[in-house]
Amino acid sequence: MPFYDLKCKCGEVFNIMASISDKENRRIKCPKCGSNELESVFSNVNVIQSRNAARNECPNIHRCGGCCPHN
Ligand SMILES: [Zn+2]
Asked: pTM of the full predicted structure?
């Protein structure tokens, strides 16, 4: 089952594993207030990807300028 990052109208943000039908049928409830008025929160996927890209850079980039065989 997929994980969802959800934000409740009360401001609670939580991560929950639920089936798609549970989400579509609003069977997921806020653990804090019990409301099912939740909206999806999209985590910063682009930020994570750019961090991974930075890790793939040559560790000696400050010396080789990025043109050594590591790239
Ligand atoms: Zn809530």
From this structure: 0.56
